[in-house]
Model the fold of this input.
Amino acid sequence: MARATFVVALALFRAMAMDAWASDGEGRTAFNNHCRNCHSIKRGDNRLGPSMYGIFGAEAGQVSGYLGYSGGLTGFKWDEATLDRFIADPASVSSVTTMIYPPVGDPVERKKIIAFLRALSGP
Done:
């Protein structure tokens, strides 16, 4: 019983922290610091990388109008766990990726980015 209560409390805390990161600008700042050079958050604004608008929950490798996929990004949806792995080490998700940015090693920074991307994807 105590373990179940702890798990529920932890999940609620995590959800509140992610909402705070997305709404107070920390997620936007983390995204800008690590992702903005190649990715936009505007729908349809593909650049060196695809637009990140609506990416959370979307099929990998399917951003409309983006033709620069390197392959290997198929058969899954971008969820929290997959985004976290990809941001930390793109080759762990796709060995043929052409992502050239430095991986984000800080798990808190990755969570901020993911919360921001989730907020861009709606409810």
